[in-house]
Write a structure and sequence with these properties.
about 350 residues, alpha/beta, Quinone Oxidoreductase, Chain A, domain 1, Rossmann fold, seven-stranded mixed β-sheet, six-stranded parallel β-sheet, globular
Length: about 350
């Protein structure tokens, strides 16, 4: 019998049995090795919702996953049982306007693992066995570390945010929020050539990692140093690009004071439900560009390559693993940002 971590509502996470089904043509069955606990998983667990997406039926959580191929369906080529693989949580339709124009992350018929954004929900990857479409399974070398590989999805989010920011070579960049996405976004910004990357947070622990391991040139604890960004407000703003990764309306509002005229703000973090106040007159008169960044497109495969090659080391954000049977304990501990950046579930301990 195989099992999944299933959210039945607020603070109601159960380890439920699953039944393997026959594969359809073009499908692949995988054994999931590791699943990273994302901020969205925590929101589903603690609140029963993420933004405007509420749990309306039992939902298997998880979308930051890696694993091993178990079985391939008819017509599948290039994959075989026993291969290690990165697992892309996005199953785009491949036929809508957005998919055909190279923006599949905006697909109008997307099935994204572990999301209540549609009904019936798209079940997630915190499951010992999982069926995916062939293009979601990216084989890697046998010596690949599957724990590190499971960070490909959040890294792809950071890479996509940087792509939405435009060319960063020599630019001054600020990243608000130093959770996993913020840290990986900061690292991606340095990889893209940013000359300065200032990161902010409300906890010292992630800021220390940002400064020593993830490429930040300077950090600011906005609680301990409430005026810490004031120096960047002089002369009409200091930063060329701002990447808002905290999901905090206050953090977003603060960026309009430190971004230069003609600069760009990229909203990466998911804000609370409803609307957020924006200083539109400032945006207009200073010609500031405010753009969104949602999930990722081709950046997933780039993230896999960067991790496998060692170009980006994701180990600084790894904070420990729990067996599937202790998923609720892991969910509770994952919210302690003073001690934890990214916790993982080991879904199949024999391959983890």
């Amino acid at each position: 019998m195989k099992f999944s971590a299933v959210c039945h509502g607020k603070k109601d996470l159960r380890i439920d049995p699953i039944q393997d089904r026959p594969l359809l043509p073009g499908e692949v069955r995988v054994a999931v090795a590791f699943g990273g606990i994302c901020g969205s998983d925590l929101h589903y667990y603690h609140r029963g919702a993420v933004g405007d997406f509420a749990v309306r039926e039992p939902l298997t959580l998880g979308h930051e996953i890696s694993g091993v191929v178990l079985e391939v369906g008819a017509g599948v080529s290039g994959l075989h049982a026993g291969q290690k693989a990165a697992l892309d949580p996005s199953r785009a339709c491949l036929s809508c306007h957005y998919c055909r124009s190279g923006r599949s992350n905006l697909c109008t018929n997307m099935w994204f693992l572990g999301s209540a954004g549609r009904f019936p929900h798209s079940q997630g990857g915190f499951s010992q066995h999982l069926v995916l479409r062939q293009d979601q399974v990216i084989p890697v070398a046998d010596d690949t570390d599957l724990l590190r590989l499971s960070v490909a999805e959040p890294l792809s989010v950071g890479l996509h945010a940087v792509n939405r920011a435009g060319p960063l070579m020599g630019k001054r960049v600020i990243v608000t929020g130093s959770g996993p996405i913020g840290l990986l976004t900061a690292r991606a910004a340095r990889l893209a050539g940013a000359a300065e990357v200032v990161t902010t947070d409300v906890e010292d622990a992630p800021l220390a990692i940002a400064r020593t391991r993830m490429g930040a040139t300077r950090t600011v604890n906005v609680v301990a140093q409430p005026e810490g960004l004031a120096e960047f407000e002089v002369d009409g703003g200091y930063f060329d690009v701002a990447l808002e990764a905290s999901g905090s309306p206050a953090a977003l509002a603060s960026l309009f004071r430190v971004i230069r005229r003609g600069g760009r703000i990229v909203q990466v973090g998911m804000l609370p439900p409803g609307t957020a106040p924006i200083p539109v007159n400032v945006l207009q008169s200073r010609e500031i560009e405010l753009v969104g960044a949602f999930r990722a497109h081709d950046e997933f495969r780039l993230a896999v390559d960067l991790i496998v090659s060692g170009t980006i080391d994701v180990t600084p954000i790894l904070s420990g693993t729990y067996p599937l049977s202790q998923a609720m304990t892991a969910m509770e501990r994952a919210g302690d940002r003073s001690q934890v950046i990214k916790l993982h579930l080991a879904l199949n301990e024999d391959i983890a």
